[in-house]
Write a structure and sequence with these properties.
This protein has 3 helices and no strands. It is mainly α.
Length: 84
């Protein structure tokens, strides 16, 4: 079993199967989106300031990771919105 499965089992075992407007799956996806966005923001804060010159391979890789994490967060947030 994964941690996701364990969390869902615990949420389903609670007296309320829905928390607010969210199902257990929706709540977990909302939390996932929040964590992804926090990690992306932390990486963006660690990126060196943008200069007029070309970016290094490290800078390009770091910014690529930030964009990908923010994209995953947006996808997760979209799934949560669809459940309402």
């Amino acid at each position: 079993m994964s941690f996701r499965d364990d969390i869902l089992a615990g949420l389903r075992a609670s007296e309320d199967t829905a928390i607010g407007d969210l199902t257990p799956e929706g709540l977990l996806e909302a939390y996932r989106a929040e964590v992804l966005r926090e990690v992306a923001d932390e990486l963006a804060d660690q990126a060196p300031p943008v200069t007029a010159g070309p970016r290094t391979q490290y800078e390009r890789g770091l910014m690529d990771a930030v964009y990908r994490l923010r994209g995953l967060a947006s996808i997760a947030e979209g799934g949560v919105r669809d459940e309402h």
